[in-house]
Amino acid sequence: MTLTRLTVQTHGPACHDITREVAAVVSGLGDGIVTLFLRHTSCSLLIQENADPDVQRDLLGWLERIAPSADHPSMGWITHRAEGPDDMPAHLKAAVLPTCLQIPVERGRMVLGTWQGIYLVEHRRAPHRREVVVKFQAG
């Protein structure tokens, strides 16, 4: 078993491609499974298309439509506002997207599709330092 922590510095809502960093962790480790766990409640992990940047833009746009800032008129029902108008919507977005992923590994390479990449999706407006726990288990 191998346990590694990756740090991702974010600067507002965006999809951060972490595929290469995760690939480097599992490189040469043989067959098994890699688990990614995000230690935060206002960002998410996704496996998504990595070929067309419009996919990430559209995803972020959709997330903003389903959970806009708490100061938007449609969000008057939100009571958790202590950390700013983007905090509770970020929690809502993280509630509908995963914070943990598992990917099979074969001969030290993740078994991802041709157009698949691994993304940390930041939901907050302010910069954050995010930590992803990466655990490889042989088997």
From TrEMBL:
Listed InterPro entries? UPF0047_YjbQ-like (IPR001602), YjbQ-like_sf (IPR035917)
**UniProt xrefs under Gene3D superfamilies:** YjbQ-like
Q: To which species is this protein native?
A: Paracoccus litorisediminis
**Protein's name according to its UniProt entry:** YjbQ family protein
Give the taxonomic lineage as stored in the record. Bacteria, Pseudomonadati, Pseudomonadota, Alphaproteobacteria, Rhodobacterales
The text of the family note is: Belongs to the UPF0047 family.
